[in-house]
Design a protein that fits this description.
The complex is a heterodimer of chains A (262) and B (406).
Chain A (H helix, E strand, L loop, with lengths): L4 E10 L2 E11 L4 E5 L6 H8 L7 E6 L7 E2 L5 H7 L1 E3 L12 H8 L8 H6 L2 H20 L15 H14 L4 E5 L7 H16 L3 E5 L3 H7 L2 E6 L2 E6 L1 H6 L1 H8 L7
Parallel strand pairs in A: 3-8, 3-9, 6-7, 7-8
Antiparallel strand pairs in A: 1-2, 1-4, 4-5, 9-10
Helix pairs in contact in A: 3-5, 3-6, 5-6
Chain B lengths: L8 H23 E4 L4 E4 L1 H34 L19 H18 L2 H26 L8 H18 L3 H20 L7 H21 L1 H4 L20 H27 L2 H11 L1 H6 L4 H27 L9 H14 L4 H17 L1 H4 L2 H15 L17
Antiparallel strand pairs in B: 1-2
Helix pairs in contact in B: 1-2, 4-9, 4-12, 4-13, 4-14, 5-6, 5-7, 5-12, 6-12, 10-12, 13-14, 13-16
Classes of the chains: A alpha/beta (262), B mainly alpha (406).
The structure holds adenosine-5'-triphosphate (ATP) and magnesium ion.
The site of magnesium ion has 3 residues of chain A, from helix 1.
């Protein structure tokens, strides 16, 4: 199958620090791919480079949307990358705290809707229809993540787990091909984690690809089709969950060098 | 209020300290009076006692009220019934009162010139112009969260647009109005470009500088703007070439300003509840997440600057027509500060709050003549008190709800 996303030779330098070193990645359509690695390995930096928050020092990011020509994503600004079909959540939740839950999701529809100044002021029927569709779709998303009853609540009043789910709903509202989740289960209790797992599985059912950063290894092993492991900005292993679990480089990265003095 | 808490020793000590502090603060201003002509100093000790007494009493009352409120909230929370206590809005501000209140306000504004003298009408016209300015700045500061301290520059652009168009091309008010708005927007974008990457304090400083630059250019480029002597004899707005007496034209201008203010409220309200408005709020809340949601940060910032400035430009044209004389002295930083006060006092992003704040801040000094002398002092005091009592402004913006059927 043709990969949805091809990352080749992606490099990111911060001054003298090489946070990403010639990373190569392939993500197939409909696949859940996990990205693992110890703290500071460069996982979030990779997300930031893919989504245009950082401008990579070198390398390529190519997207193959089904039925459309290949697109070059590196060097595009974040909003263009989102429009092209990549949506993300953040490791440290970044909702719009003083907007309602529903409005948070509606902001996600921005890049798929078109109302301009004229539409905003005069509200022609096209704008009214678009607005109604937006509300309908966003309410459906809220229903899916179980937050429909809190639709008019301010986002900052939600409990932690709900905020994480809301971030996913907001990302889904942008209509992505690839969803990038940065440690979605961090800080969740076991029940919340179980709900999250069900949600992620159901998103895969929609035909989206998911790239997942997660430290909860059980969750990663259960969910992912393919795992990339990295350390110090380099790819150290890739393969199925079983292959990666047994890979010596991964074990070394997580447990430390066998030769170090105890 | 049956169980109002009794003041404890701590409360009283706090009140006394507050009183002393205020006595100390106001000492040079309210107690010492130096008369340079007579070379004498009068000590007004009575004032000192007043200040001390009143501020201590107010401080005590505030503390007791806060304690009472805290006790009530605590009691509500303890109630067996677990329904979360709805945040109660003051009676006047509940949504279901908005329509009757709005109608009443409309009637009041329509009947105003019939009831009151031309002098009062004039004051009200000025106040309404600040409503327009406040709402315009509210787009930039309240909605998009971009702290703009040079807003008065666009007001000046509008005023000078009309002044110069009249001076050189003899153009009238109705042609100058849209041109003033457009030029305001253009200057908004001109300012917007260099400050795209700035936020918060840095943005405030650069916009402040921009405001001063415009004023200094107007002051010093005599060949262009006639310098500090300004432009005189700008005609008042016309009505199909009708001849009007001064009184009539003032009343006409009043209605014009009411119409403009209404249009502003309408447009700003529509913008607020639109795709663009949500993008502004998102920008204000979190710039990075906003971009990640596919919002073009550059475009949305420039739109905010341009729209805010467009209203200031049109208000400037109105201002030039009203005073018939403009010079750079009308467009100092103080004006920007007053308009910003209106937005902050009204509650960032709240339309009704900004309208109310503009009327209060503009009308109060006019009608409390005794206060007029201490206008700036009162402005400062009001802001400080507001920050303590209601840090979110007079009215916090209503929570927007959407029902799918609408
Ligand atoms: N903006 C930046 N400037 C300088 N260095 C940075 C920047 N962002 C990240 N780094 C460095 O890049 C390295 C990788 O950081 P990154 O946040 O990507 O790690 P991570 O794999 O996401 O770790 P964690 O599991 O803790 O989230 C770190 O050494 C970090 O200090
Ligand atoms: Mg990280």
């Amino acid at each position: 199958m043709h990969p949805l996303l091809i990352v080749s030779g992606l490099t990111m330098d911060f001054g003298g620090i090489r946070a990403l070193d010639r990373m190569d990645l392939r993500i197939l359509p409909g696949e859940i791919v996990a990205l693992i690695g110890p703290n500071g390995a460069g996982k979030t930096t990779l997300f930031n480079c893919l989504t245009g928050m950082y401008r990579p020092t070198g390398g390529q990011v190519l997207l193959n949307p089904p039925g459309r020509p290949q697109r070059r994503l590196h060097g595009l600004s974040p909003h263009r990358i989102t429009a092209a079909g990549l949506a993300r959540t953040f490791q440290n939740i970044r909702l719009f705290p003083n907007m309602t839950v529903l409005e948070n999701v509606m902001v996600g529809r921005h890049c798929r809707t078109t109302a301009k100044l004229f539409g905003a002021i005069f509200r022609p029927s096209a704008t009214v229809r678009e607005e109604r569709e937006t509300v309908g779709m966003c309410l459906a998303l809220l229903d899916r993540i179980g937050l429909i009853d809190q639709a008019d609540e301010l986002a900052r009043n939600l409990p932690y787990g709900a905020q994480r789910r809301l971030e996913i709903a907001r990302a889904l509202a942008t209509g992505p091909q690839l969803l990038l989740l940065d440690e979605p289960a961090a800080g969740m209790n076991p029940q919340e984690t179980a709900e999250l797992e069900a949600l992620i599985a159901s998103i895969r059912g929609d035909g989206l690809s998911i790239l997942l950063i997660e430290h909860d290894m059980k969750l990663v092993m259960r969910l992912s089709d393919h795992i990339f492991a990295m350390d110090f900005g380099c790819l150290i292993a890739e393969g199925t969950p079983d292959e990666v679990r047994r890979h010596p480089a991964v074990i070394r990265a997580y447990l430390g060098e066998e030769t170090t003095d105890a | 209020m049956k169980n109002l808490p009794m003041p404890t020793g701590k409360d009283i000590r706090h009140a006394l300290l507050t009183g002393l502090w205020f006595m100390f603060l106001t000492f040079p201003l309210l107690v010492i009076k130096v008369d340079p002509a007579e070379q004498s100093v009068t000590w007004r000790w009575a004032n000192l006692v007043w200040v001390g007494g009143v501020s201590a009493a107010v401080a005590l009352a505030c503390r007791l009220l806060a304690a009472y409120r805290a006790a009530r909230v605590e009691r509500l929370r303890r109630l067996p019934d677990q329904t979360a206590p709805q945040p109660k809005l003051p009676l006047l501000f509940r949504p279901e009162r908005l329509l009757p209140l709005g109608t009443l306000a409309m009637l009041f504004f329509l009947a105003f010139p019939l009831v009151f003298s031309t002098y009062q009408v004039n004051i009200m016209t000025t106040a309404l112009m600040y409503v327009i300015l406040g709402l315009g700045l509210n787009i930039v500061v309240g909605f998009a969260g971009l702290l703009d301290l040079g807003y008065v520059a666009f007001y000046a652009v509008g005023a000078y647009t009309y002044g110069l168009l009249h001076l050189h091309f003899n153009l009238g008010f109705w042609i100058a109005l849209p041109i003033g708005g457009l030029l305001g927007a253009l200057f908004g974008i001109l300012l917007g470009f260099p400050v795209l990457r700035l936020r918060g304090d840095y943005l405030a400083i650069v916009t402040l500088g921009f405001g001063e630059i415009i004023r200094l250019v107007l002051e010093n480029w005599g060949a262009f703007s006639q310098g500090p002597s300004g432009i005189a004899d700008i005609p008042r707005p016309g009505l199909f070439g009708l001849d009007m007496t001064l009184d009539q034209s003032l009343v006409y201008q009043y209605y014009l300003t009411v119409a403009m203010a209404l249009a502003t409220v309408f447009v700003v309200n529509r913008l607020r509840h639109s795709r663009i408005g949500r993008a502004w709020f998102a920008l204000r809340e979190d710039e990075i997440a906003c971009q990640a949601m596919g919002i073009d940060k550059t475009a949305i910032k420039l739109t905010a600057f341009a729209l805010g400035a467009a209203w200031a430009g049109m208000a400037g044209v109105l201002f030039a027509a009203k005073t018939t004389f403009i010079n750079p002295a009308s467009f100092t930083f103080l004006e920007s500060a007053i308009i910003l006060c209106i937005v902050v006092l009204g509650g960032m992003g709240s339309i009704a709050g900004v309208v109310l704040a503009a009327l209060i801040l503009m009308l109060l000094p006019e009608y409390l003549r005794a206060l007029a002398e201490y206008r700036m002092l009162v402005f400062g005091a009001v802001l400080v008190v507001m920050m303590i009592v209601r840090p979110r402004g007079l009215m916090s913006p209503p929570r927007q709800t959407y029902s799918p059927s609408r």
